[in-house]
Amino acid sequence: MGTQKKELIDLLDQHVEKRMNAIVFQIRPGCDALYPSPFEPWSHWLSGTQGIPPDPYYDPLQMMVEECRKRNLELHAWFNPYRAVVNFEENSIASSHIAAQHPEWILTYGSNRYLNPGLQEVRDYVSNVVADVVRRYDIDAVHMDDYFYPYKIKDQEFPDELTFQEFPRGFEPDRKEDWRRDNVDLIIRQLQDTIRAIKPWVQFGISPFGVWRNKSRDPKGSETASSQTNYDDLYADILLWLREGWIDYVVPQAYWHIGFQIADHQKIAEWWDTNSYDRVLYIGNGVHRLNKKSDTPEWRSSKEIIRQIELDRALPHVSGNFYFNSKAFQRDPVNINRTLQKRIYPYPALIPVNPHLPAIIPDPPSGLQVEEKGKHILLSWNAGSTSHTSYFVIYSFKKGDPQDLDDPRNIYLISSRNKLMLKKRSALFRHARFFRITAVSRTHHESDPSTDIQIKY
Question: What residue ranges of the chain are covered by domains with CATH 2.60.40.10?
């Protein structure tokens, strides 16, 4: 097994051990690809040179799809829509890169190059890239973060004036910022329509910068004093997308500590909870800031993250948490892995249903049976008459226990297999056990439970 593949598998195993249930995997950092793309060259992150496939050859995205399925992890494919070349004076690009093929689509800002958001050709191109992945790969979601228009550089104007003059679409000269926001609105709507047309069960999610607008500029904004915001600087009107239902979930990057004067995690989380417009809301937590030597005392232990999660969970519209980034869990500077496993995720967690996707309801499992296999017991079952089952939830109860399927303590295992091998001589069978199984679909809708089966040894 190659070093890259082993590293990815080790990461997945580590996250499963912490009982995570979804992975966000970046597959398009800058108009390049961590998969064989008909549109874009292989990313230099794989081989060191853009356009060169990994050696020995493999498809990282397909591998991640397969490995995530084995572990019952959702896979969210992370795209950067506009960034084309980072540090263009230092990094070369392949001849097949879009900046070489269509230089007229490219704008230079600071040390980077970007696709021009004002061009319909660009919107079509990005949509085709996303459509190709949705069509060919068994992903669960298309995910984009905060990089729409780039963060502003002091005293530098983004060079799209000529595009604005040529394609104003009815916006007057003094409304250039509204035109920029409309450019991003157009691509969000186009992507949502594209995804829905191909696979209606694939989610479209955005992880925006944590501040939509400061209250000092808009009474609807948050009590923050951020120097840049989604609406005013990145031209991403997230609230419009939520209100109109153009995205399925939102993960604001609330990467600051509780009590931070400029952007307080608590105030930001509460603001998004009030302004989620009934779309699925997760909170993004900045585990990358954890450091025993941090200049900010709050980040010197895992207590800050635990406080944030407990605060987030108390909000009525928050469905869970996303953590940035995997490298922080690898370094584990303040024992965050063990803390999360013990304090936050002591039991397996089912992936929440997104009510805005078409529901796929699987049949309940049937035909439960038990066979003795030497020192083991084989519990097996049938998936039901439909093909809508993606995985199973095996519940286990002692005789006399409340048989509550909403209590995660009763989940014995979540598995994609329709069989389970159990040791006869295990603590599990000190008492008679009842097993009950449900099937779960791609949209995470759970079937009615199977009939019970009792095992006693």
Answer: 366-455
Distance CA 351, CA 141 (A): 13
Contact (Cβ atoms closer than 8 angstroms) between residue 145 and residue 78: yes
- Strand 411-415 to 366-373 pairing: unpaired
Helix ranges restricted to H, 260-368: 265-274, 303-313, 326-331, 336-339
Give the Å distances, CA to CA, from 185 to 102, 118, 164, 213, 453.
23, 11, 16, 17, 53
Per-residue pLDDT tens over the stretch 59-112 = 999 999 999 999 999 999 999 999 999 988 788 999 999 999 999 999 999 999
Helix intervals (H) in 199-286: 238-244, 265-274
Predicted local distance difference test score (pLDDT) of residue 1: 52
The ranges of the chain annotated as CATH 3.20.20.80 are 3-344
Inter-axis angle of helices 3-17 and 60-70, nearest 10: 30
Residue 110 DSSP code:
T
- Asked if 393 contacts 440 with a C-beta cutoff of 8 angstroms, the reply is yes
Count of CB atoms within 10 A of residue 269's CB? 25
What is the C-alpha to C-alpha distance for residues 192 and 384, in angstroms, rounded to an integer?
32
Q: Count how many Cα atoms sit within 13 Å of the Cα of residue 393 in the half-sphere of its side chain.
A: 25
Q: How far apart are the first and last CA of the chain?
A: 41
- Rounded Cα distance, 273 and 406, in Å: 24
CATH superfamily for 366-455 is: Immunoglobulins (2.60.40.10)
Stretch 173-198: mean pLDDT? 98
Average the pLDDT over 336-357 and give the result: 92
Cα–Cα distance measured from residue 441 to residue 70, given in angstroms and rounded to the nearest whole number:
15
| Phi, psi of 125, deg, nearest 5 | -65, -50
CA distance 236 to 217: 16
> pLDDT of 200-256, one tens digit each?
999 999 999 999 999 999 999 999 999 999 999 999 999 999 999 999 999 999 999
Which one is the CATH code of 3-344: 3.40.630.30, 3.20.20.80, 3.60.21.10, 1.10.4160.10? 3.20.20.80
d(CA 273, CA 282): 9
Structure tokens at 149: 């228009």
What pTM, to 2 d.p., does this model score? Answer: 0.95
Alpha-carbon distance of 326 to 336, in angstroms, equals 12
Q: Which residue has the tokens 């992880």?
A: 207
